[in-house]
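User: I'm putting together notes for a lab meeting next week and I want to include a structural view of one of the chains we've been expressing. I don't have a solved structure, so I'd like a prediction I can at least talk through. The sequence is below, exactly as it appears in our construct file.
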Amino acid sequence: MSWTDAPAVTAGPIEKVLYEVKKTIVGQDILLERLIVALLARGHILVEGVPGLAKTLAVKSLAEAIGGDFHRVQFTPDLVPADIVGTRIYHQPTGEFQVQLGPVFTNLLLADEINRAPAKVQSALLETMQERQVTIGRETHKLPDPFLVMATQNPIESEGVYPLPEAQVDRFMMKVVVGYPTPTEEFVVVERALAPAAVIQKIIDPATLVTLQLQADRVYVDPSLIDFAVQLAHATRDPARVGLTDLARYVTFGASPRSSISLVLAARALAYIRGREYVVPEDLSDLALDVLRHRLVLSYEALSDEVTADLIISKILANLTIPEPRGR
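Assistant: Thanks for the context. Below is the predicted structure for the 328-residue chain, given as structure tokens.
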């Protein structure tokens, strides 16, 4: 069986959701697609971009289209973990403590400028991302399903920020870099700003999204593609494996094993979005930068030579052999 012979699947509801979101979002196709991938693959996204690129609007519009709850938390240096996960409050009439749940109890959570809060707050959020539950006092509370965290960070400021530790940022399935719109796209943005805001219709509900997640789970991944993802992760740790000895001095730590898992899970969701029940190599290569870029720890020599993680990953991809299908 060739990669292109895979049977088609129906991802109609997802296409309708994307169409609905694009009533308010101009361009940003990559960001919107990655958000859907994360929802289907049960992952989380870190978005890096300058202010004013509709990152908040994209998540809010997506929440409206899937009929889910949406909360936004503006991270600041004075934030404490209880502001995120919740706390126990003394109720004087009854003389008892009552649990007040925090904003993480939602379907889509926007953690705006996450690097402005200290490490204690960051870790409180990242723990909920991994465990999908919160313990307040002696009680454990499950988070809603589905649950997606989209965290943003501003790349143009360095004062008053607390960079995410490498071990914590590794918990994000993808890091998406959002750029400026083209002149044509920006013209449409300004033109739409002069008219009343579009109303986003509810296309599906959270229960339907869970069903779509289960359908995406059934997308077949050939063992050769799993091996491709593993070889890609290993090559970031030792570029000499693919004949790129000159890149070794630029990489202090390569991608963790979590990257291989995330890449395969995300590729499976992307294949489903594209109407296939069979992952092809392009699904992996299209997502490689987003899945891997935040997991590489570069050396000071890389910074001085202006060598980026994207450049290293792109060179590794170019030197890896594209796998051939082995059949089902």
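A couple of points you could mention at the meeting. DSSP finds 13 helices and eleven strands in the chain. Residues 22 and 61 are 9 Å apart (CA to CA).

User: Perfect, that's what I needed.
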